[in-house]
Amino acid sequence: MLDESLVANTLNAALTGGADFAEVFVEDKRNSSAFLDDGKIEELTSGRDRGAGIRVVAGDTTGFAHTADLSETGLRNAAEAAAAAARGGGGGVRKVSLERQEASRNIEVQTFPETVAKSTKVELLQRADEEARSIGDAISQVSARYGDSRRKILVANSDGLIAGDDQVRTFFSINCVAMGDTGMQTGRESHGRTIGFETFDDHDVTEMARIAANRAITKLSARPAPSGAQTVVVGPGGGGVLFHEACGHGLEADLVAKSASVFAGRMGEQVASPLVTLIDDGTMSAEWGNFAIDDEGRPAQRNVLIQDGILTDYMYDNIRARKEGRPSSGNGRRQSYQHLPMVRMTNTYITAGQDNPADIISSTPNGVYVAQLGGGQVNTATGDFVFGMTEAYLIEDGKITEPIREGNLIGNGPEVLTRIDALGNDFAMGHPGTCGKDGQGVPVGDGTPTLRVTSLTVGGTAA
Amino acid sequence: MAELLPIAKKVLSWANDGEAVEVVAIHERDTEIRVYQGEIEQFTASESQGVGVRVIVDNKQGFAYAGSLDEDVLAETLAEARDNATFGTPDEFLGLASPDGVPVQSLDLYDESVNTMATDAKIDMAIRLEAQTMTSDPRITGIESADYVDSISESALVSTSGVEVTSRDSGSYVTVSALAEEDGDTQIGFGFSVGRDPQTLDVDRAAADAGDRATRLLGATQPASERVTIVFDPFVTAQFLAILGGTMSGEAVMKGYSLFANRMGEEVASPLFTLVDDPTNRDAFTASETDGEGMASRRNVLIDEGRLNTFVHNAYTGRRMSTASTGSAVRSYSSVPGVGTRALFLEPGTQSQEELIRNIDNGVLIQGVAGIHSGVNPVSGDFSTGAEGLRIRDGELGEPLREITIASTLQKMLGDIQAVGNDVDWLPMSAAGVSLVIDDVTMSGS
After folding, report:
1. Domain of A26?
2. Is residue A389 situated within a structural domain?
């Protein structure tokens, strides 16, 4: 992407003030998206973002500047701005020699999205729209989105590292509105992979359209959700966001270091039911949070955070790891070259258990079965979290019965972890997500088997 | 800074005959200072620019953007937008906005102080914010972050339909997040202050608010479920209004995504409820002279004393629904113009929050909500959100409550509004806050 000597010169300029650490992050990203709504292809958008972010660390201070100008002058100006911002003392000259590090992707892209005709992408949306509308007269509106991106990055730092990655993402989503006597309801399905257009060879958009349409239609007959403490069974793949919110964020070392996490100071302790093993894994092939190197040049890793209920590790980026004299765990990520990296999750999941999912439901006298959770949010200091149920049913006498309307679930992360009393053998990954932290969004994945929480507060309106 | 208008006009000059072209060019400069324990933790100096090009030809629309204003990139972006247009579905209502005679009001949204204030003074403000928050209450144990941020944004928008507008505005804010601890219970609270001129930022208030928010819920417990009257703090009301604003978009109405479609002119809320969208009010954080298509900003009364009065439109939805743009196109340079409310404001009542509370026998003052976006469905109107706050008993504030949800439907809540406070607070959001009393809401707890 950039000549290595230019990268080295930029690092040298960044170090001129006597800084402890300097880094150049170069990004060249192209994306395209198509949006269908109301039966029309409303827009086809192409985007291009290219630039470099330069970080300089002096003591505990980080200086950062970015530029869209990748010429020698543009880069040197940004390097000097970052160095000035870091206010490194001392002076002196350091020369950096770079050593190329290869981190290979664990999956090959077959069909790069830019080689696929725009008409083929548009046709994908039209097929899904037709299929969804054919499911029933109740379907009153359909929107669908196709998106792809190709993000080439190059990271080099004053430790001598230089590494690159070529990240491809392909995405599809469909939303259906169903209209009935009780008003309108919505249903959604989405799919995203870190591979190319070949993902649609075995993920049929018409199948996704049927799923979304049926979700909306089912909810037309939904009853108000119950209100108050309930036993909650979460379906396979549907509840990963629970663990992303309930404990994942609290295991990010930057929050732990500032004691802004309920999990600070609890290493080695039993923090969850012995059934629970929680993993964050950036190496999971083709999953939405997958990459070869993170945005600090560190190869993706599989990190066991909770093993059989015992807290075993936090997640680290380079800055936090340097302070604690340990290696980064490959969790340094950023939204774009215009952002500083920080500790972020990748693909976060609970490993499969031993129970037969059907037995988990039949042994639950009364409660709520959540097939799909929506977005959520957590207060990492208290562990209190909240997220929406987008597809849920009542469990009555050990059977899944009627659908219930949307509502929020709330709980406390550390408490919920100890209240998991059944874990299915049916692990599945959930939907592609975007995790927001400090104003930056990054793509993440999550997964769970069927599991049961003995008590969670359901925020419905029924008594 | 680069002159944006000549750049945008140059791209426009490349338009072919028969093509409608709209070009937006932006330039933004930001400074972000984060301090930790009296030292600078992060200092970010950023400068970004970009161009967005929309092409409509043969009733088909295409769009492209790039984060650069280099000449070769501009040409490539126009070519991409042109190519994308060939794949759009023909739609006779597509078209650019044309000036409609409503004059653009000068709002004076730029203050030179962002530029002239010394960097050290900005750093000192963040350091003082951190220190002051730390000492605001003995139970404050740490500061997660204390930031000073400012920005200058410029834009130019031109089109083949005769639009030519430029803008420049400044903004600055301080924000702090504090941790408090008592008897093994930890809570977190934030405070902020916002202004176009950094010299007007109120560090004292930001520090005091963060200290108050972090400590007021210490020792909070989860109550039993019941139906109660709630009072939204201004900050919560602003979030509620923003969601409500989404249902007033002409696009949502046109496509059947709004629960208010077909209810124009009807009573949809209590007569106490008058909802206005007015980006020409300079007090509003999101005030702006023109909308995302270059139309003059204007005041729109959406709900007038409970009666649904108007939806908001951009050029496309206005044309398609046989009305006109209300100056409500919203966009960034990297997206085509959508439709939305831009600076919501609820006509205030006469009573202070304290007076409102005095009239309530059994209720909850809701001081914070979580998951409002995941728990509210603006299509069905189902409303359910995590919440925290203080018990109200016999007109007095009581013990703190946490781990509760409040649930109803948007339709029912609007009808159940009992009072609007007089405590309008201009927040750094697209809606202003004010205390709001709503009856008969389900509170879920243990």
Report:
1. 4-30+46-100
2. yes
The DSSP secondary-structure symbol of B351 reads B
- CB–CB of A411 and B403 under 8 A? yes
My answer on whether A202 and A302 are in the same domain is: no
Residue B161, both tokens: 């339909």
Q: What's the pLDDT at A384?
A: 87
A82 and A117 in one domain? Answer: no
Q: Contact A45/B64, CB-based, under 8 Å?
A: yes
Q: Does A382 touch chain B (CB under 8 A)?
A: yes
CATH code for the domain in which residue A121 is found: 3.30.2290.10
With CA atoms as reference, report the closest residue to A319 among A300, A342, A351. Answer: A342
ipTM summary value: 0.86
Number of A:B CB contacts under 8 A? 253
- SS3 for chain A is CCCHHHHHHHHHHHHCCCCCEEEEEEEEEEEEEEEEECCEEEEEEEEEEEEEEEEEEECCEEEEEEECCCCHHHHHHHHHHHHHHHCCCCCCCCCCCCEECCCCCCCCCCCCHHHCCHHHHHHHHHHHHHHHHHCCCCEEEEEEEEEEEEEEEEEEECCCEEEEEEEEEEEEEEEEEEEECCEEEEEEEEEEECCCHHHHHCCCHHHHHHHHHHHHHHHHCCECCEEEEEEEEECCCCCHHHHHHHHHHHHEHHHHHCCCCCCCCCCCCECCCCCCCEEEECCCCCCCCCCCECCCCCECCEEEEEECCEECCCECCHHHHHHCCCCCCCCEECCCCCCCCEECCCEEEECCCCECHHHHHHCCCEEEEEEEEEEEEECCCCCEEEEEEEEEEEEECCEEEEEECCEEEEEEHHHHHHCEEEEECCCEECCCEEEEECCEEEEEEEEECCEEEEEEEEECCEC
A73 touches chain B (CB under 8 A): no
Across the interface, of B254, B257, B377, the residue whose CB is closest to A406 is B377
pLDDT beneath 50, residues of chain A: 90
User: In whole angstroms, what is the distance from residue A354 CA to residue A357 CA?
Assistant: 9
Domains and CATH numbers, chain B: 20-215 (3.30.2290.10), 220-446 (no CATH)
Query: For the purposes of burial, counting CB atoms within 10 Å of the CB of A268, is it exposed (0-12), middle (13-18) or buried (19 or more)?
Result: exposed
Per-chain mean pLDDT for chain A: 92
Q: What confidence tens digit (pLDDT) does each residue in A403-448 have? A: 998 888 888 989 999 999 999 999 999 999 999 998 899 999 999 9
Q: In this complex, which of B44, B379, B404 lies closest to A177 when CB atoms are compared?
A: B379
Q: Looking at the domain assignment, is residue A40 inside a domain?
A: no
* Neighbouring residues of A136: CB distance < 8 A, sequence distance ≥ 6: A178, A213, A217
Residues A25 and A76 in one domain: yes
Question: Using the beta-carbon criterion (under 8 Å), do B67 and A228 form an inter-chain contact?
Answer: no
Give the minimum alpha-carbon distance from B401 to chain A in angstroms, rounded to a whole number: 13
**Contact between residue B262 and residue B254 where contact means Cβ atoms under 8 Å apart:** no
What pLDDT is stored for residue A47 in this prediction?
A: 96
Please report whether residue A35 resides in a domain: no
Same domain, A278 and A251: yes
A436 contacts chain B (CB < 8 A) = no
Q: For chain A, what is the domain count?
A: 3
Sign of CA dihedral A225, A229, A235, A241: positive
Q: Is the pLDDT of residue B261 over 70?
A: yes
